[in-house]
Amino acid sequence: xxxxxxMYCRTFQAVFRAALPFLPYRSPKIIPSVAGIPDVCxxxxxxxxxxxxxxxxxxLGLTAFLEKTxxxxxxxxxxxxxxxxxxTIRNVEEARALYLERGAKAIIAFGGGSSMDCAKAAGARxxxxxQSISRMKGLLKVHKRLPLLIAIPTTAGTGSETTxxxxxxxxxxxxxxxxxxxxxxPRYAVLDYHETVGLPKSITATTGMDALTHAVEAYIGGSxxxxxxxxAEEAVHLIYQYLKAAYDDGxxxxxxxxxxxxxxxxxxxxxxxYVGYIHAVAHSLGGQYGTPHGLANAVILxxxxxxxxxxxxxxxxxxxxxxxxxxxxxxxxxxxxxFIRWIRQMNDSMGIPRHFPDIxxxxxxxxxxxxxxxxxxxxxxxxxxxxxxxERIYYEVKG
Length: 399
Known about the structure:
53% of the residues lie in helices and 11% in strands. It is an alpha/beta fold. It has a six-stranded parallel β-sheet, with helices on both faces. Helix 8 (226-248) packs antiparallel against helix 9 (253-273), helix 10 (277-289) runs antiparallel to helix 11 (293-308) and helix 12 (313-322) packs across helix 13. The two termini are 24 Å apart. The model has no long low-confidence stretch (mean pLDDT 96).
């Protein structure tokens, strides 16, 4: 990366870090059970809601208890279940149209990160009818308060129930981009482990590694705070303790509780301290090929950490020691190396591939350009890379 651009990126990040204490970050209020939602609706004067989910979740009957709870409380509801794995502009517009047609007054996001992203973006379009989704991409383009938004995560990984981000795909341009605004943080989050019991092994694995990626990228970046470091350490400790157990036995109550908390902690960490090139590359793969986000992060994470080398060694080692992944007295280089090896071992044990050999070489320059635009200057990464340097990541991921 050219010296002047490097200086610009680091200056931008330093200014943003200095502004952190003055920005309107907030955490959602926690509801311990779906049964608590009607009370919130009554307090807010809401008698009609829209549930945003996907067809798979609905076909499994996972929304049945929520629907029953709303009906018994006299709260009208409609359901948008067209959300796809990487939610599109079309999904957002369809959800918005249903909300307006049915006269809903609140949105309940039920599912994984895709459903939550769709719900957030639909809320943004509802309050800003003259502004397209493409004009909201980037940082602080929404500004207006969304309708009451309640998030119910059914996976333990995305942390979307606590973040200011929504990631939307322009399916025509094969481009996936984030929308970041404080108004997108849900007002309430339902952390009920019952909603994650029995989650398929593959989704347990990839969403769990997604949470790990959030925690790691937030921790090794240059915009950490005492709070975000503590949250990231707790998230990694919980993932180290519970992810494989949840994968092996989807009905393990303690493991499911632990992973739900891990995802929340990681979400708090990266909302304030941001992510890095792992996410930027994963988003570009999702836009180009529809690669599920958690799977992409899981594959890319150990590769990029290895490429960062000594620049993130000290922080990665401290994270590994404080989270209990390695012995407390281990040196930085060995601890960082052990941590990366543990990530690979976790991926291997859960059937996650090490590479994506189907990446087409001719697509790499375009994806690298998207990653460069997303990551620079916002993401406070250990090593700054421009478009050409980012292309190396794709070749490593391709294998």
